[in-house]
Specification:
mainly alpha; 7 helices; 0% strand; globular
């Protein structure tokens, strides 16, 4: 059941990203094959550290790159035996690699969550469409928004905070399953929570990454 649902969810996520990219280009320059090439080049440029960055900026970029590497390794070692090979658990060298990169990923993710929190904070003008709806269905004195709805930016912020919120049960579930504080039943329950949370976490990361690239291209 987990294998089937997880594969369908991941396929739907990647297909949705591709369809959205071509159906709603980030800008007029992104239409056609040139936009795809530009998007790919921009994604690779995110992996480079600009020379004008300060020492703190360079450290943040290195932390981000380390987080990306850990995320890719954890995704491969975690999903490959479960979704591709159909095994019930991770074992062997994949388990050792997974357990090695997991604490590094947790630390880097915590650092990024703290340093990026102000960038992704919600503001009053994030969704003018919602403000117009509240003005119509309530008696609240909400000023008429003057800007267009920035749906991509709003969803990007939602995806970021979803990643931050999902990181807590994702990490705690696997940590608690390793401690001899609970019986076998609760350890299996913690593993189940870890699996399902990892799928939702992976989808949130993909959406956040995709929208971050789109917003940067559209600027």
């Amino acid at each position: 059941m987990f294998q089937t649902i997880a594969i369908l969810v991941l396929l739907a996520t990647f297909v949705g990203v591709v369809v959205h990219w071509f159906a709603f280009p980030a800008s007029s320059e992104c239409r056609g094959g040139g936009g795809v090439v530009r998007g790919i080049v921009h994604v690779f440029s995110l992996l480079l550290i600009e020379q004008r960055n300060s020492l703190l900026g360079a450290l943040k970029k290195l932390c981000y790159l380390l987080t990306v590497v850990c995320f890719v390794v954890l995704a491969i070692t975690g999903f490959w035996p479960l979704l591709v090979q159909g095994e019930p658990h991770i074992s062997g060298y994949l388990m050792m690699i997974h357990a090695t990169f997991a604490p590094v990923f947790a630390i880097c993710l915590a650092i990024l969550g703290i340093t990026w929190a102000s960038r992704y904070r919600f503001a009053g003008g994030d969704c003018p469409c919602l403000e117009r709806l509240l003005r119509r269905v309530t008696r609240l004195h909400i000023p008429e928004p003057q800007e267009r709805c920035k749906c991509a930016t709003t969803v990007q912020k939602i995806a970021f905070w979803a990643v931050v919120a999902l990181a807590l049960p994702l990490i705690l579930s696997i940590v608690l399953s390793m401690l001899p504080l609970f019986g076998t039943h609760y350890q299996e329950l913690a593993l189940t929570i870890h699996r399902w949370t990892s799928i939702v976490f992976f989808v949130a990361v993909i959406i956040l990454t995709y929208l971050s690239v789109r917003v940067r291209i559209a600027q």
